[in-house]
Amino acid sequence: MLGIGGSLREGSQSERALRIALDAAAARGVATELIPGPELVLPFYDTAITERDERAVRLIEGVRRADGIIVVSPGYHGALSGLVKNALDYLEDLREDSRPYLDGRAVGLAAVAYGWQAAVTTLDQLRTITHALRGWATPLGGSINSAETKFDEAGGASDEKSVRTLRLIGEQVADHALARSR
């Protein structure tokens, strides 16, 4: 399972949220891999350019191998971050695969923003993009207001409900991935 997201700041609130979901998936027995925000600094996606740098190759190959994906984006001005959107644009490189884009993969989604409006609209955009890429968005998504919830370095948060939501997202993706591998 692959986790993608966070912001440019190492250990950002959205990266910490992603780690909680990935840890829950790992507890279900699936192997996990994290590509945090600082590793998503990629050239703007351009279909006319076929060469990919090593970070783009790692992202594309990680998605290609994954049976499940978790994406967590910060919300900026009511939308997902350009960093995460650009990374998702690179999935166009999977269009010719036997499993194109996110086809057949469960995708857990969460948005972390300073305010409810941006958290909710960012989650909605992540769901729309997941559906456009043929992914199966998990029934539960997470909208987390970082004005009210603070994530800590120990893998927890000030709001237990947010932690439970993120853990359930990770468990749903893991359960789907495990069911597909049987």
What does this structure look like?
By secondary structure, this protein is an alpha/beta fold. The chain has 5 helices and 7 strands; from the N terminus they run βαβαββαβαββα. The protein has helices at residues 13-27, 54-65, 82-89, 116-132, 160-180, and strands at residues 2-5, 33-36, 68-76, 79-80, 106-113, 136-137, 142-145. Strands 1, 2, 3, 4, 5, 6 and 7 form a 7-stranded mixed sheet that branches. β1, α1 (13-27) and β2 (33-36) form a beta-alpha-beta unit. α1 crosses α5 (160-180). The model has no long low-confidence stretch (mean pLDDT 96).
Please provide the ordered H/E string of secondary-structure elements: EHEHEEHEHEEH
Sheet-strand content, in percent, reads: 15-25%
Radius of gyration: 15 Å
Number of DSSP strands? Answer: 7
Q: What is the overall shape?
A: globular
Largest sheet: 7 strands, mixed
Question: How many helices in DSSP terms?
Answer: 5
How confident overall, as mean pLDDT? 96
Distance separating the two termini = 15 Å
Structural class: alpha/beta
Q: Helix proportion of residues, in percent?
A: 40-55%
Spans of at least 5 consecutive residues with low confidence: none
Short characterization:
It is built from five helices and seven strands; from the N terminus they run E-H-E-H-E-E-H-E-H-E-E-H. It is α/β, with parallel strands linked by helices. The longest helix has 21 residues, at about 160-180.
Q: Which helices and strands appear, and what pairs or packs with what?
A:
Elements: E1 2-5, H1 13-27, E2 33-36, H2 54-65, E3 68-76, E4 79-80, H3 82-89, E5 106-113, H4 116-132, E6 136-137, E7 142-145, H5 160-180
Parallel strand pairs: 1-2, 1-3, 3-5, 5-6, 5-7
Antiparallel strand pairs: 3-4
